[in-house]
Here is the input.
Amino acid sequence: MDTASSIAPATSARGRTGPLLALALAATTAFSLLAPATASAPGPVVHVVVTAAQDGAVGVASAVRAVLAAGGAVDAELPLVGGVSATLPAGAVLPPSFVVAEDRPMHLAGTSAAGVANSTVRQVLGMGVPAGEGAGVTVAVVDTGVDEVADLAGRVEHAGVIGDDGDEYGHGTFVAGLIAGDGSLSGGRYAGVAPAASILDVRVADSEGSSNLSLVLLGLQKVLAHG
Here is the structure.
């Protein structure tokens, strides 16, 4: 027998995800944002991603109706998954046709390396001297942002969900270097696997490497919209 989808109070601290989501909504113009429900329930709330059985815009519309009917507020539309990110009163119950997931906090593993794009990936893979691999190809990096370092000069397009252009944590720049660094600062010694490729920088994490599920989904929608 189907059971209704219910939300328990969140058990993990959301940390910076509230401000991050606010920044995402301010920075993202590709999504239609809906006003909160006129009557908000008192007491604790939970931040969730609600997906419907239908795909795309139909699923979004269905999820919006369910969230508002439960006394919640829609934060952003997510047609990529046929749903929305939303704030619901703790204990709210949605019909069983909806999947409700915590807007889970995420953190990038690894050491901060701001401003660095060097890598030895070509040596590890036995690729030899760079020979223009990746020309005409654009690779999306959904991460902490990408700095305009010399090894990526002139080949970075910014389409971030949060914050300004650039990378305050370093992870995204390092990943972009693994992909498309041309080794300018090292005479070609430290080049990526596709040193002629372009990078689409989709920033979804803050200066501490923190993000959440809905920001990553918004970032993937940016990639899809870019084509």
In short: The chain is about 25% helix and 20% strand.
